[in-house]
Amino acid sequence: MIESDVLDRVLNEARCHGAGFAEVYAEDRRNTGVAFDDGRVDGVSSGRDRGAGIRVVNGVTTGYAHTSDLSERSLLAAARAAADAAGSADGGSVIIALDEKRSGAGTKVEVDPQAVPKARRVEMLTEVDEIARSINSAVTQVSAGLSDSYRSVLIANSDGVFVTDEVTRVLFRVSVVADGDLGMQTGAESLGFTGGWEVFDRYSLADLATEAAEQAVRKLHARPAPSGQLPVVIAQGTGGVLFHEACGHGLEADHIAKGASVYAGRVGELVASPLVTLVDDGTVDSEWGTRSFDDEGQPTRRNVLIEDGVLVDYMWDHIRARDEQRSPSGNGRRQDYASLPMVRMTNTFVLAGEDDPGDIISSTEHGVYVAKLGGGSVNTASGDFVFGMRDAYLIENGQITEPLREGNLIGNGPQVLSDIDMLGADFSMGGPGTCGKDGQGVPVGTGQPTLRVSSMTIGGTAA
Predict the structure, then answer these.
(1) Which domains are delineated in the chain?
(2) Which DSSP string corresponds to 321-388?
(3) What's this model's pTM, rounded to 2 decimal places?
């Protein structure tokens, strides 16, 4: 994408004012998508975007400039702009010696998504639409989509880092609306992996369409969710997003540095139930948040954040880790070349415990079973959160009974971690997610086993 001798000159130009750190991040990105709505093709899209961002760090000041032109002239101009933005120090010339280029393993791709005709994608979505509508006459709308992305990146910096990597991802989503006496109700499912089109030969899109339709139809006859404090059992896979949002962001080093986290200064303390081990791992095979390197050229790795309830470490980007004289954790991520990197999660999950999932249900006399969580919001500084329950049920006398609607889970991340009193042996990852932070979205994975929180606030509408 950019020759090493050009990178040398650009990095030296970026440090023309004596800045302590400079970086070039270049990428070439391609996307293809087909959207299907109400029995017809709603849109076919494809695009390509390429460019580079130059980052210069001078003390506590960062300058950043980006360009869609990868010529040496444009890169040098961006380097000067970033250097000027970072401010001048003592000036002078610094010779940068790049390490030998390292290439990531890249994504294991058996079937290149770019080789799949759009007609085949439309055929797959047509089948999804027909299956969802066949579930019940109450189904009034089906929306579905298939998309893929390819991203080639190059990262070089004044610390000698010089890496390249390639990532391919594929995504399927389906949303179903059913209409009845209680008004319109929705159900949704998605499937996404780092990999090629072969993923869709291993998983049944028909099953996902069926489940989405059945979710929507069940809600037509659901009772309002109760209100108050109850034990909550969260199904395997789905609850990972709760821990990502309510706990994971508070373990990112930028929040720690600002004192904007309930976990600041608490390494070595018990912050969760002794049953809980929380991990962030960017190396999990084929998962949505998986990469060989992060967006600062650091190898991704398995980071144990909480072990047996004790806070072990935070997630780090390259600059903060360098300032703290410690190893980066592979969590420096960015949305694209026009964005600055920041500390972000990759695949975040709670490890399996030893309880039988059936025993978790049967030992709960009265409570709520959450099969699917919906969207939510969290205050990172306090850990307080609200999450919708997309697919939930009442637990009565140790059995899952009636479906529920119109309910939220309300709580506090650290408190929920402490109140986990049963942890299943049935770990699984959940569906693909996009994590938003400071206006940037990046792909992330989440997961967990079936677990029980001894008491949570249910925000329902039942009288």
Answers:
(1) 4-219 (3.30.2290.10), 223-459 (no CATH)
(2) HHHTTS---S-EE-SSTTS--EE--SEEEEPP-SB-HHHHHHT-SEEEEEEEEEEEEE-TTT-EEEEE
(3) 0.94
